[in-house]
Amino acid sequence: MSRVRTVLGDVAPAELGVCDAHDHLFFAAPALAGQELDDPAAARAELESFAALGGGALAQWTPFGLGRRAAALPAVSRAAGVHVIAATGMHQAAHYDPALLERLGGRGEHGLAAFFVAELTEGLLDGDDPDGPRGTAKAGMIKVAGMFHGLDAHTRRVMTAAAEAHHATGAPIGVHHEMGTAAVDVLGLLHGELGVPAASILLGHLNRFPDPGIHRELAASGAFLAFDGPSRAHHATDWRLLECLEELAAAGHTGQLLLGGDTTSAAGRASTGGGPGVPFLLRVLRPRIASALGEEAAEAIFTGNPARAFAADWR
């Protein structure tokens, strides 16, 4: 039976409700020094604002080593009354201390896959030490990342390990695409070479590369297409988001579309920063999608599609 693995335990897909399919409650990266998402009270406030608008679930795509605060996630989820899906996996090599990469690299692809599997089936590490203590909350997805218009050796190694972990557990794989690029290459590797079913792959940030032809090509595979991070000032393509969704819907791919806020800085929070934050999805974007595509399509994008995208027959 398919279930969605949350930090408070496995739930039936229908229990998720309205879902932010890609966001961050906790996140820390050198490129955003001073803007870390590291405050549990602020994370709770953001989730509560989302819940007040009807939000029921949020997928935190923060992978290992980027300040995901795994030990704090269950309490934040419980207090806000919102399901939280956590991630194992790894981002691009540039986001990590070389010494940590060396430690993980010494385990080889199979060892890295075993690391992911343990976080999916036993519990998430409480900190950023790969040999540190493990909590009871489990990951419900694997996060990986491509490069700008290509895949480097680190990306291929991590994706190979992620595919192995998927085959061992059934976990869905979410992909960061740098500026929305290299999605065809990623799909060719994960699905074509490594045999991950397309329906278990969530291709992220496609709004940052608004090429309708490529979007239709990706959708034809059966993968989920995630459009995340709307209305962030440094994304000049945001104004084309609805156009992209309308074209995919017209081509018959409404059932593969996902939306997420992708909040990566403290200043980007709505409840404690300058916004737009997590609530923007329901306060502004959902009504616009319902107006442009119809209420049935909006319900699929925010509720029905995430329920299928994050569900797995866990092994």
From TrEMBL:
Positions carrying N6-carboxylysine: K143
The keyword Plastid belongs to this UniProt entry's keyword annotation: no
Family designation: Belongs to the metallo-dependent hydrolases superfamily. Phosphotriesterase family.
Keyword Endoplasmic reticulum: no
Family matches, as PROSITE patterns: PHOSPHOTRIESTERASE_2
Keywords per UniProt: Hydrolase, Metal-binding
Name of the protein in question: Phosphotriesterase
Organism: Actinacidiphila acidipaludis
